Amino acid sequence: MDVAHEIRVAMSTGKVIVGSKQTIKACAFGKAKLVIIASNCPESVRSQIEYYAKLSGVPIYVFPGSSWDLGAACRKPFMVASLAIIDPGDSDIMSLVEKEEVG
Question: Band of the pLDDT at 103, cuts 50, 70, 90?
């Protein structure tokens, strides 16, 4: 599966929140269905996201690239340390989590 492609599909057909502060809020309020964090996400941010995601039962997927790569996948001209999928739309992005749980 091309994760970058699925992120773009989710952004155009569903609802995606970009940014660490917004991602933490989405987890805290239980709105996020999936959280994607860059492999080089700062540890302080990552631990906060993991804490709130665990409380709300939101699965986390670690994007295999840097925050620049995640920003490019979102078609944003800046770094993206994390994003939250609120509504996956027409994408198969949620199957990332299903594969991870099985494997």
Answer: very low
